[in-house]
Every structure is written in C-alpha cells, then in structure tokens.
Amino acid sequence: MASGWGLRAGTWTSSQASWNASFGGPGSGSGPLSGPWYSTHKIQLFGVLLAVASNFLISVSLNIQKCAHLRLLCQAEAKPYYRSKLWWCGIALLGLAEVGTFTAYALAPVALVAPLGCVSVIGSAFISVFFLKKTMRTADILGGTLTITGIYLLVTFAPNVPQELTARQVQNYLVSWPFLVYSILEILIFCILLYFYKRKAVKHIMVLLMMVALLASLTVIAVKAVSSMIALSVKGKMQLTYSVFYIMCVLMATSCVFQIKFLNQAMHLYEATAVVPINFVFFTTSAIISGVIFYQEFQGAALLSVFMFLFGCLLSFLGVIIIARNKKEEHLQIPFIDCGHIPGQKLAGKIQPDSHCSCYGTLNKEDDLVKRQS
Asked: Rounded to two decimals, what is the model's pTM?
C-alpha cells in the first residue's frame, strides 16, 4: 500500500513538474518571461519592442511636424519651417525612430519587423486627436482593435531563427539559387513596370506602389544584413572588413533613394488616404517574401504557425485599410475671394485678404488686359 501511494505521489509530482515547465507554474522558472522561453526569445522580443516603440515614435514625430506647419501658417509673418523649434523637434524624433527601426532589423526577423509598421498608422490616428484636435472615429477604434490583434498574432507565431548574421552567411545567401531566381523575376517585373511608367506614361497608383514595394524588398534585405554585421562588429566579431558589407550599404542607399522618388510621385498624384494603406500592404508583403526567400526565416516552421502568422498579417492589413478609409484630408481654412465667380473676369485665382488693409485686395486688371490682347 505504501509503495502504491509512493508511486502515485511520484507520478503526480512528475506530471505537475511537466505542467509547470510547459505553462509556467510555480517554481518552474520557464514561464513566458523566464527560463528557457525567455532565453531563446529575449533578443527577438527586444527587437519587437524596439520596432513597436520606433514606429510609435515615427507617428509622434510626423504629428509634431504637421502641428509645426499649421502653427506657421496661422502666423501673420511668413516664416520658413526650418526655423521652427517644434519642427526640428519632430525631425530629431524621426531620426531617433529610424535608428531604432534599423537596429530592430538586426534583432528580429524581417517578416516580423516589417508588419509592425502598422503601429505608426494606428499611432497617428490616435495621437492626431491630441496634437491636431481631430475627432476620434468609430473606424479608428475598430481598425486599431484589428491591428493590435494582428500584432499579437504576429509576435506570437513569428519564426524564431538565429538573428546573428555574419558576412560569410550573407555571401552564401546572395548566391543561393532561390534568391537568384527571385532576383531575376523581380528585375523583370520592375523593368516591365518601369517601361509602362516611362514610355507609356502610366502613372496608376498600383504601378507606382508596386515599384516601391519591389525596391523595398531589396532595402529590407540590405538593412538587415548591414545592421546585423554592424551589431556583430560592436560585439568584437569584426565584419566590416568584408566587401559584402559595402555592397549591401550601396544597395540599401540606392534602393532607398529610388523608393522615395516613386513614393513621392504617388503622394503627389494621389491622396495620402489611398497611398498609405496600399503602400503598407505592398511593402509588408514584399518584405515577408524577401525574408522568407533570402534569410529562409520560415524554414522548419509548423504549418499552424505559418497560417496564424499570415492571419495576423491579414488582420493588420484590414485594420490599416479601415483606419485610412474615407479619411478626408484636412486643410487650413483661410478666408479668400474666388475670382472665378465674378462676371466678366477670366482670372480664376484666389486673392488672399491683406492683413495691413481694410480691403480684400483687387483684381490684377493690367495682367488680364495683357492676356486679352495676346
């Protein structure tokens, strides 16, 4: 009887220990933030937190810059934006945030850092309520909820791969056949899009943002390689003497410049409410694909983990689209006279009121007369 009780007690103790080891029970030291789980995920977790904080800081900096521009427009004297201390504060925060994002790529997978850019979108939606006195919409709350849920799934089911990349590993990745096939396909697609853009003057938003996304896939590959090699060099494992480091630096700078060019073109031709969600979806998709092909980030991952990760991406996409949908651009309201509605006048410009005079200004009849004579 005693031996039976002893056997049962031993069985119960081992079962309890197994439960604690799996779910972080008392005395296990292996809960979500301790023990083996934390030791294997702490670097990636720090990269995630850094990426989230950096993207949130980007939204703060952009709202500060916009607030500075609006304040300058309200002043009687015209003053350049670069003389505003508030604007420079926003620029400094933006620079700090970009450094944080750059570092995050060295600590976490590309497939995880890239989708976390949605934090800046939901951050802007909520921060603008305080900085720019905008109204909180139901769509903002719904979109924010979906995006946060998506972020949780992304972090939970992200691939857990070693993030220390040596120059030798980057060289091997560059000549691997999956990346070579991917590069050839990407170059062909980009050349076709560029042909329609240059020769046929096709400036559709999809064409522009697809070119941005193709360039962005190269950017994130280069950013992760450069940041990882710098991180290893700081730790004492010098990687900056390899030529591949400088090749990646050139690739990063070049792809960034052309990416910004096409993105600015899209922002010039289309509303930001259309550009932001489409660009986020395209950029995130291209970054995940490049991370999977170049860095093999989902190699050996369970099918359920891949499905839940992609589901988290989908929720993030939907959240960003809902936040940006039907969001009108707000312009500063300044009183003016629309000369286009005055009978007998061809001039259709807008005359701003003169702050130093009681009148609202006059039509430039001499210019109008010259136009009629010509």
From this structure: 0.73
